[in-house]
Amino acid sequence: MQPNARPGFGVLLRQFRAAAGISQEVLAERAGLSRRGIADLERGARNFPYGDTIRRLADALDLAPDERAALLAAGSRQSSPEPEKRTLLPLALSWLVGREREISEIQLLLKSGRLLTLTGAAGIGKTRLALEVAHRLQHQYTHGVAFIDLAPLSDPGLLPQAAAIAVGAREQKDRSVLQALQDELGAREMLLIIDNCEHVLDASAALADGLVRNCPRIRILATSREGMRIRGETVWLVPTLRSEEANQLFIERAQAADAQLEWSDEDTKYVVDICRRLDGIPLAIELAAARVPSLGLSQISARLTERLRILSRGSRLDSPRHQTLRAALDWSYALLDDQERQLLERLSVFAGGWNPEALAPVCGSDMADSDDLIDVLVGLVDKSLVMTDKRDGTTRYRLLETIREYASERLDASAQAPVVRRRHAVYFRSLVETGGVTRRGVWYAPDMDLVRREHDNMRAALSALLSLEDFGDGLALCRALGGFRLGQGYLNEGDEWLRRFLSHAESMPWIAVAEGLYTAGRVAEYRGAFDAARSDLVRSLRLARENGSTNHQVRALFGLGSLATHLGDYTQARAYFQDGLSRERDHRIFPDVAEALVSLAHIESMQGESQLAVAHFEEAIAIERQLGDAWGQAYVLNDLSQHARNNGELERAQALEEEAHALWVQSGSRMGERAALLNLSVITFERADVPRARELALQTLRLCQEIADASATTVRCVEVASEILQASGASETVVRLEAAASAQRDALGAPTPPNERAERERTQEAAASAVPPPEFERVWQQGHMLSIHDAVELAVAELMKP
Hints:
Strand content: 5-15%
Distance between the termini: 67 Å
Oligomer: single chain
Strand order of the largest sheet: 1-3-4-5-2-6
């Protein structure tokens, strides 16, 4: 119906009274008015009664919300044929970058509900997003859009006045400001933006509830760091920017700041890194971009460990709390109660998030019981300071890194910092030490997936123990993570942490040092640092002998045997293993016995002593099955498969290796999985199944990319891929790969094992015959300059070709 076709107030009142079946006298009595007053209204003597009069009549007639709105509209001067349209929105000074998906979702939510609250962390862009939505929707509302900014308010009692001013509501005699506001908006179709509700949350909730209940054509889009928790509210968490949006925002704002950049590939890498480390928070990204002209990208990236200090020069025209990242966080922090502040500070010790069960052991004890802590945590979630990730029916919590840095500063300023950081380290050490097993003298945690998920927390614990000078506990945690480092490929990092704590060996008991040196030696061996490995293992053996410990001597001897095997010195390796076994059998350290027997059997197989090798393999597998250790069984089966392959039993070798692969996947060992895939690719290639061999070689190299080590195993993966590619005629690529592998073996001091030399010679000769001599030298030199990681990338690219 068009506005000029609407019935007048008197006509509409008469219709509603007739529908209710009551007389003018009854209506007058119910509404507290005179019968003559009712008669005057119905015959049109008064077309615009007071809002209070209309409200009384609506209550007396028990009108439905839409009928009530119609009566209010008919009696309002605003219901003239051309209604006043208000669009009172701040103008944006810059384009909104991205957010199209979010804008569409918010628009849909506003269609289905009348109160939508955008929540999110400081600087996430709630206000900017709300304003963009309002600008796009303003023409869809008959009476436009109004913006109510609550940030300047400190007195909650002034909120109705602020809202009334924003919408142009008139004061009414004998009516409160809130009632006058509701009267004014009762007949309007309008979108209200109520911005920054968090510091006057109760008053905001009361205002929104009253407007939604009494003004049926009003819709509200609010922004707050937590929801209002009133009926009819939809709470929508504003996400961080997606990677491509964050990068685009940074570039545009840096260019607007007159940054003179060429945007090279190197610049782009810096931008991606900066935006990732700033959690995709728009305010943080804009502040960082503004510093590009003075600092440059590399300096900003390098100094992001002090992000709260360097992100401190926003626009002078912005509100004070948006001119620096710290000010924005100060605003949120000031709204917390004492328990929330204390818990937020303590949560900063977690890196990469935490599960609910970690909360009390790390943050509790002197603060509150477990149930109270959960309640406080939920409050921080509601206030958008703690994020939640729900997966597979479980909830994991985390802090955005910007908030974590802020909270960490607060914690460090308190006396509780050392206590909380030590509790954090104790808790995460317990996760890797409880229920684990020792394999070849290296500790393996019971749940590798759990350790992988908590790896950042393990790093944070090590860092805290180092700063607290708890060197013994730090070395113990390094040892407890030894199997994880070997099994998952974090070799360089593991070596670095071990060296840091071992540099304080003089302050620790000899047993701790001997075990730490042994673990360091095994990590160094697998990362190809053979000189360092030998030095560590010899020192560990010396300490064990000086202190009369047979167990520690045996482990050091086995470590030296493994190292000698890696270097192809089988005579020396066999001597080490036999010496260790002669000592260990008396003490029955079963896992170590089994693993040493496998190593010895491997050497015997290489030296042609097949019968003796099989006997040792069978003894080893019996021990591992008795122990029920999937990893140990895979270890034996892998070497037994190689023995079968060396004897020409390829079908049996493949079956054994497939079983080993399944067991290694079951035990969560990526290094073991890689070894099995590598051997399977060799076996299937030898069985002339080239397509399957290519698939397996590609899977192996993918694992090399994930593990990112430069070990002899990675070299072997490249060499096997090279041999398979030569069968497809990719000779130039093969020359490059062989040259890169040869260079890495020289760098590691790990010559090609005797049983693989013929294979290498065949592959290189085949490639050389396909590439003319002058070209061969040029391509070989190119390959020789490749890092082993580049060689892996090259092999992957070639294997992916059809």
